[in-house]
Sequence to fold (459 residues):
Amino acid sequence: MIRWYAIQLPFWCVMTAALELDVTRAGQWTVSRPLVLGPLLGWACGTLRHGTTVGVLIDLLCLDRIPAGRALPPNGTIAVAAAVLLAVGPHPVEPALGLPAALAMGWGFSRFERSLRRRAAGLTRRAERALEAGGGAPFGEMLLRGLAMQVLAAAAFLYVGLIGLAPALSWAWSEAPEAARRAAGLLLLWTPQLALATLLYAFRLR
Amino acid sequence: MDWKTRLNICLRSLLLQACWNEERMQNLGFAWCAEPWLSRLYKKGDPRLTEALRRHLEFFNTQPHMAGFILGTVCRMEETRALGEVPAERIRTIKAAMGSTLAAVGDALFWGTLKPLGAAAGLLTLLLLRALGAPEEGAVAGAAAACLGIFNVPALAARWRGLRLGYERGEGVVEELVRMDWQGGIRRLRRAGLALSAFAAFLLVRNVGAGEDAAFFAAALAACLGLKAMRLTQLEAYGALAACAAVAVLAGA
Fold:
């Protein structure tokens, strides 16, 4: 357990946070999309099939919102990493509970990211002051600070979220009444249909 | 603009949103992208260099993969300005106009069409490779390759060629962009996406099995499509699904 929480989990959180930069900040190659990251993380953690399943589901569910301008859709990268990491480790969470919890984390991170964006405005002002002072244009330095801030914040969010959620959800599942578990199971059973409907709807003829 | 400078600017454009902020959005990234070119036009310490960099720290936002067109155009206009032939206000106007127009086109093309098309192609590749008996790793790798290829080939082409076209034509690139049939291309891609998604849905229904199971899957899919058609947000639709699951359990399912 110590090895998981002290070494493995922080490692995966930092890796995910680095890849999360691809969502908006760096590259936008879509390597961070759940359909790619889910299987990759699943394969690395020994749960390829689960990683692929949650990767496909979360990718399709997140097609709904476009990251245009100020819009902050739920973060699929954080969600899929949470979904995979909740299923492994010393307190594995049932997918029926893990998937909604992971989606909630993705949504939560998008709210958190708004405050990160506000902080980034400070970097622009620093760059301007440096320019006015005649000290050259430290744009590259400010950009790197912005990226570092994003990676640290995303890794911390994911790590703190998972160390809190994993034992809590694992316990909650074991204590939940049978009806609640059946309802969660039904929700998981129907989630592929919602995901597929989202994909089909994305191509509706306008 | 030589090949190396163009590559430098193109690579920098990958970090256009590295410092995205609510106040001025992509301003810092844009200034950083334009910096190599501006440093060639003006010597270090030249007040015109500071003025140009300050100009590009103003508000700016566009779809990141379309930024190449604007960067190229701005570089050409700044070059002309260095000769005293273009007022600064003209650069601002063209940059802002192109930014918002290409944002609308780029959002519809990349986020609204190519991203879901990549998902459809990835899903279909996964299902087909599994049906053909490929090992899971191979099926997943194929799906990821299809998904990434469909998005990134046009995205990289837009960045690279956009930069070249914007620089070669300057302000004239606007007429070139207007002549391109963006909406027609998007419509064709969306029809292809619909076909791929429908085929993937067919395979999934078939995988469920025959009879009642397949009928129930198809009925649930139709119900979810109904939820989407009601314009519910994803959170609302998921909540509605959770509520249905709870009601089903209470009803004895």
